[in-house]
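idk why but the lab printer keeps eating my pages so im just putting this in chat instead. protein + 2-deoxy-2-amino glucitol-6-phosphate:
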Amino acid sequence: MCGIIGYIGEKNATPILIEGLKRLEYRGYDSSGIGIISSGSHQLIIRKAPGKICDLESLIRSDHVPAASLGVSHTRWATHGAPNRVNAHPHSDSLRKIVIVHNGIIENYASLKKTLQAKGYKFVSETDTEVVAHLLRENLKKDLISAFRKTINQLKGSFALGVISQDHPDMLLAARIGSPLIIGVGKNENFIASDVPAILNQTKRVIYLKDEEFAVIRKDKIDVYDFAGKKVPAKITTVTFKLDAVEKQGYAHFMLKEIHEQADVLKQMLNSRVSNDHVHLDGLALSEKQIKGIKNIMIVACGTAYHAGLVGKYIIEKLANIPVAIDVSSEFRYRDPILDKSTLVVAISQSGETADTLAAVKEAKAKGAKILSIVNAVGSSLTRESDGVLYTHAGPEIGVASTKAYTAQLCMLYLLALKLGSIKKTLSQKEIRRFIKDLKSIPHLYHKILKHKQSIAAMAKDNSHFGCFLYLGRNINYPSALEGALKLKEISYIPAEGYAAGEMKHGPIALIDEYRAVVCIAVESPTYEKMISNIQEILSRKGKIIAIATEGDKTIQDHAHHVIYIPATNPLLTPLLTAIPLQLLAYYIAVNRGCDVDQPRNLAKSVTVE
Ligand code: AGP
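predcted complex ->
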């Protein structure tokens, strides 16, 4: 996934483009570049650099790049070709008069490249994007706009494009299909960006471009068309979240800030979606009759969102008595799933742009299933593919490792289960009232856990030398073990495996020795005694135990080398609480190992490629 910014107006474009790129670094950061048309001389200038955006910034400064009122810029997460200067965007046509920035994958680039090479076009990079620049040149007979429209209709795959031309210094072109792109609306200036935080300090008025739409953007006029060339309305939305929501606010990393935001996120969600012990799920878009007609639920998601879905399975089956299946999106879409009109597909995605989940949803729709999505990013592609959308409104999650989006997804799944249970009459109003009371206590319990973060930091320091971790959980905390392991591996690069504790004796126990740390989720629950048995089996093989336990449990101290306590709560709600110490443990271990916590190697915030 990559980040795109574009500017047209009366200010100097370069600082705006660089500032915007920095706010998109979480989307990909292995190389970056800018393309500008200088004011006055209308000279096309391109500067690109491998590495972080600050490397590009130093290059621009040392080159004394002239002022420009039109430009595009790009931060890359490599899909085709190594992350180096040549493959960095923007890419230009053969006459170096047009530059293009692109997010997505051009699936038919190889055949287009072959045709263009046969016509004598010379390629310098290994990217799919460069094909678009030469194809645009090939199509440019009369005017740029019709050539641009012809070009985007020849492309297959997913793309968000920004285009400028030295011969057309009064316009910025943009198009999207399958990758996000917004237009920022200013006064005598306009912007394009992959995501809102990139331009939030410039304007709060945005147009969310839809799939198969392109835009001709002048500093004082914006025209939006469909790919057939028909003009379409461009709705301007005012963004509500504030700029400081994307700043670190004094925390060492975005991830640590977002861990601390979870209490407020849940409180806000509960305040807006629960009143007088009734759950209001605006966006559910399913009538009571339709809900009563649901015979089964299929959850599709990736990564952390998948782990949230696993908890959702336990909860919905328990509270609403509806059979729930779940699959990772990338597998679901290839196994020809058996779905019909009585199936509700729940797609969970923080970004709403994950290619695998989008593809899974399209597959499910083709089979007649209703789609309900649980999404954080407003206006994202998944929301347009869904019949109903439950926004988590966790605010922008900048850290690549998901934290507040995860607990917000969990909370939304609890609310969905309560809603379904209430309509299907599998829960009494008394039981719902009790559950809501327990749910409303979670934000306060978060603060209690966070008060002990320094002891978790100290424990992390003592254990960050281990070369491998095993995470064990049972029942509703088995997904918590998977999520804890994912948090650790993706930010510290330590191999970490989450396992159902009952499965340990079927293989993983062979891993246990004094060089292994085992995180055991042994909170108060019907499976507590079995977790203690697991712990004793590990101790007898010299494994190091880090236990997550319930306050007041003294027994655990006889078995574990380290204990992180969580406050007592409804056993069904413990995944909401165990997430916090597991996030902190991973965070502090990664910091101890000097890892780039917010931008771990090889990762991107949203995987918009398959
Ligand atoms: C989570 O820490 C990871 N960054 C990753 O697994 C993520 O959850 C996954 O890519 C799904 O992203 P989505 O929620 O935006 O669809």
